[in-house]
Amino acid sequence: MKKISKILAFPLVIATMFACSPMENPDLIQIEETDIDGGSLYLNEGTINARLSSGGIAPILWTSGPGGNASCADTGFEFDESTIRNDFNKGKFEAEWPDGFTIEVVNGKYVNWSFDGSSGQCLEAVAFIVKGGPASHIYIYDGGETSDEGLVSPLVGKKKKENADLSNLTICYSLTSCTVDSD
Question: Is residue 183 part of a domain?
Answer without folding.
Answer: no
